[in-house]
Design a protein that fits this description.
α1 packs across α2. The longest helix is centred in the middle third of the chain and has 15 residues. The chain has one domain: TIM Barrel. The chain is of the alpha/beta class. A seven-stranded parallel beta sheet has the order 3-4-5-8-9-10-11, covered by helices on one side. It contains ten helices and eleven strands. About 35% of the residues lie in helices and about 15% in strands. The protein is globular.
Amino acid sequence: MTTPTASLGARTVLRTGYGALQLERLHDRPAEALALLRRAVELGVDHVDTAEFYGAGFANSVIREALRPGDDVLVVTKVGADPNPGGHPPLRLAQRPEQLRASVEDNLRSLGVDRLAVVNLRRLDTGPGLRPEGDQVVDLDDQLAVMTALRDEGKIGAIGLSSVTLDGLRRALPAGVVCVQNAYSLVSRDDEDMLRLCATEGIAWVPFFPLGGAFPGLPKATDEPAVHAVAESLGVTPAQVGLAWLLHHAPNVLLIPGTADAAHLEANVAVGGITLDAETLDTLDGIQSRSNDVPIG
């Protein structure tokens, strides 16, 4: 089994963190949202992933209220889209350099900090989801220029990338990249070459949609008979098997599963204690990988 911690830039964090997207489900129950995040800290979670467009600022407001300086939690946010309340989806692309800068300022305000430890630039070049059109098609170099300027100004501590291609990551390496967030799971392993490059470069690999199936028609790890068989043999859930496979697959993987349920949160954190032996890993590795690189919307 891999070690329970890994590096994200200058920090060493527990390999299972928390993704704040699902906090939006508790929008009308803010006390529950606060309690959930406090419970995550109690369980040892020290890496929280967020964005201003998660619940139109709600997730950031919960993080600001729930986390205390003594918790020493690394909060990672992202830019490239802004809230669009009432829209479908409830976000709008914001890829232009001036929009990236404005989004950084929005995150600084809503999180109540003077500096964002890590900011992911969400490119939307790959994976399921929206694709940029018109003036939202922006050259990566122009985006990296404003991101590095914000880092030089002290507003950003480190830069990550999201929904990026292998070529894009290679182009961005000279700017200093500490993490990559792409859609990746046991059943969708298109980015194996990028994962290996990240491991070589000391870059954290932080998969979103870590169980697949984010949109209808896309493969789900929890639909695989082999995953269910392993789960039954170990006395854990199929979702835990899918997450545990990721931790075993590469040492630079960090998980950010999201949930609005305390019991589910505890089950996610417990994944770090699940051991998959060589025979089990061979079985899971044999599951067919299917592409999830599908534009939606």
